[in-house]
Amino acid sequence: VQLAESGGGLVQPGGSLRLSCAASGVGSSSAYMSWVRRAPGKGLQWVSTIYRDGSITHYADSVKGRFTISRDNAKNTVYLQMNSLRSEDTALYYCATPRLGCYSASWCYDPEALGQGTQVTVSS
Known about the structure:
Structural class: mainly beta
Order of helices and strands: EEEEEEEEEE
Helix content: under 10%
Number of helices: 0
Low-confidence stretches: none
Strand order of the largest sheet: 2-10-9-4-5-6
Mean pLDDT: 93
């Protein structure tokens, strides 16, 4: 499966961005899809996960209430609406398919399988 993220940019604290992830290829309709991020000098951090039909979503405590994950299976696209952005949200954001049986730990994701990501910078 190929994943292509877009929608990042520079935004002021308190602003909003909507990230998109277009999936293609075999396995592009994976049951679970996630957003993860890597801040400068830090390891991979799980952000959010959504089930195939959108009925189940999970969020890291740090983004709960501010971020919303959704998906459009007809377009093979997963979204991340980010509101009330903070400087600590600055990171390279990736969409990814978690390993079977987990989703919220960094080791659930194969770093070799990550795409280019999309940069989000929150700064005044």
